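Async update (no meeting this week)

Hi team, since we skipped the sync, here's where things stand on the single-chain job. The sequence we agreed to prioritize is pasted below, unchanged from the tracker. I ran it this morning and attached the output directly underneath so nobody has to dig for it. Comments welcome in thread, and please keep replies under the output.
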Amino acid sequence: MTSEVKDTVFHLDESLCTGCGKCTKDCLTKILEIVDGLCVMTEPFKCLECGRCMQECPENAITIKSVSPEGEQATRDIDGKKVQFVPILRELTKIMLEELGSVQLYEFEGIDIKELDNFEIEGERCYTRLYQTDKIEKTSISSSIFYGLSCSKAMCLTPSEEYDFPSFVMDWVEAEDAIFFLCDFLPADDPGRNRGYLTKYLYTPLEDLYSKYSDIPGIEPINLYWVRALASPYIIVGNVEKTPRKNVDKIFDCALGYFRAWIEIWREAKPQDPDLEYMKLVNERKKMAREIYIENDPAAGILNKFLDEEKAHTIMKLVMP
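Output:
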């Protein structure tokens, strides 16, 4: 296979590495190993630069960065192994189209996005699509597959400026043996400040669902501080092993359950005047959340490795809340 992806530079501070192996557990393409008590990257060209190993390393011993291929193409020997990915995005999109009457857009804020409807990364079919829906500023769905070994699927629906109900967000990052799963109603107001908001938009629709799914093995508090700062108390997040299969079925059902609960909120939502002081706070929080996601989301690093900077930036702009 011929590729123009950026090479990855992996640096390990051997004086800090303890060989604990936490980095190897969360590597999506399984290219990290512990050799003689130290972390080693075996196939740097398969690195997605997602930053998970750096985040998980308790000693901050790992540094990863890209370098330009300087216009040269390098031959990559990828084995023929493929992972059969769970069709979660297909099911969510089906519900979206049937229940919300969504219409696909091919232009956003003056940018032609038709080419994002179907593009390739290392020979794998990928897409980022935007939809127009009543009461919604934008609906985005995105699917990217890397070497047939891992995939990143995401869905986000963000209310327009006349509405204060939460955004629906779902991330599904799947590898051969595990899935990083995140599903939440991203609050448009501070539920700690606004108890009415907490009850109406979070507690009432999500309390029973959260109780049902929060004990799935692998579901645990997220270690990313910026996600914790923006998330609801009902966020479901964690690394779920694909064996036994019932764990995958549970997070699959969780995503569908949360989305259907969100749709009921969407149906009942009434517009408010954006010039109200309350709505100004709501829309400022939405803006802040978008900026924080764009700045910190590891998807940016992954896309920049495989795509040109302009296309990667456009995709990030489309998929953020």
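Quick observations from my side:
Residues 71-75 have pLDDT under 50 and may be disordered.
The chain is about 35% helix and 25% strand.
Reply here if anything looks off.
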